[in-house]
């Protein structure tokens, strides 16, 4: 009954960790997971979200035992 | 089709040659190969950059680029495609990315190579952190690479 959460690049430095866990509650959204782990703060604009390696939107509800990731705009290539 | 995320320096022309040699029989119907090689520069946004570190999201980065390659291959009827992207510590002059597309005709090869490169830059989970004399800094955004960007900058 947990969600694995990962942070990448500058966002990992901002939040001060690369991994976290969040208790699973049916219907919990990506935005709510962020708030749960960041003192109730809303997800900053521009932050991208993924669930099990696919891009998703902040209001998307999650299934149990998924891996969630939050990261800044991408700069590869 | 091949997508590789590599943590060591690579020679893009050697990888291209090897992939070309491995095409096999279908090579006889391929009329065009287009390729793009992106390298690290020693300057960015007015500062000297001595090295950079490229971070990725193991699992998602590969999967995202593989999906991108599969979609583009279908859309442009490509015969083959190779994408190699460096991660980890990189030095000026090192190759960062290689994109190569093989097709029957040049239009599909050129356009698909550009399409993969632009999509990779705007959506693949990769992040650059530059070392400068003033300290390390994250690259905040990629410059837009629309087809019209060059024309717009040209008087």
Description:
The complex is a heterodimer of chains A (77) and B (155). Chain A is built from 2 helices and 5 strands, in the order βαβαβββ. Chain A is an alpha+beta fold. The longest helix of chain A has 8 residues, at 30-37. Chain A is globular and about 35 Å long. Chain B has one domain (2-22, 31-140): Molybdopterin biosynthesis MoaE subunit (Aldehyde Oxidoreductase, domain 3, Alpha-Beta Complex). In chain B, helix 2 runs antiparallel to helix 3. Chain B starts with a strand and ends with a helix. The relative contact order of chain B is 0.23. The model of chain B has no long low-confidence stretch (mean pLDDT 93). The chains are: A alpha+beta (77), B alpha+beta (155). Chain A binds chain B through residues 6, 8-10, 50, 53-55, 69, 71-77, and chain B through 38, 54-57, 59-60, 63-64, 85, 96-97, 117, 120-129, 138-142.
Strand content of chain B: 35-45%
Distance between the termini of chain A: 37 Å
Low-confidence stretches of chain B: none
Number of strands of chain B: 9
Biggest chain pair interface: A-B, 16 and 28 residues
Topology pattern of chain A, helix = H, strand = E: EHEHEEE
Total discrete domains of chain A: 1
Write a short abstract of this structure.
The complex is a heterodimer of chains A (about 80) and B (about 160). Chain A has about 80 residues and is α+β, with helices and mostly antiparallel strands.
């Amino acid at each position: 009954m947990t969600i694995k959460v990962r942070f990448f690049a500058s966002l990992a430095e901002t939040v001060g960790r690369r991994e976290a866990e969040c208790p699973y509650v049916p219907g919990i959204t990506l935005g709510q997971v962020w708030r749960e782990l960041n003192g109730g703060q809303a997800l900053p604009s521009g932050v991208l979200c993924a669930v099990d390696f696919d891009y998703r939107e902040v209001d998307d509800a999650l299934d149990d035992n998924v891996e969630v990731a939050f990261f800044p705009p991408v700069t590869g290539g | 089709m091949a997508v590789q995320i590599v943590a060591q320096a690579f020679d893009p022309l050697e990888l291209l040659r090897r992939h070309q040699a491995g095409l096999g029989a279908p090579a006889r119907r391929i009329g065009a190969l287009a390729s793009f090689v992106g390298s690290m520069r020693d300057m960015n946004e007015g500062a000297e950059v001595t090295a950079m570190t490229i971070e990725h999201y193991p699992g998602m980065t590969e999967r995202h680029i593989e999906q991108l390659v599969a979609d583009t291959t279908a859309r442009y009827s490509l015969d083959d495609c190779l994408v190699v992207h460096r991660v980890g510590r990189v030095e000026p002059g090192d190759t960062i990315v290689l994109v190569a597309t093989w097709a029957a005709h040049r239009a599909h090869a050129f356009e698909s190579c550009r399409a993969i490169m632009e999509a990779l830059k705007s959506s693949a989970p990769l992040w650059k952190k530059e070392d400068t004399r003033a300290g390390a800094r994250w690259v905040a955004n990629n410059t837009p690479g629309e087809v019209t960007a060059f024309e717009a900058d040209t008087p």
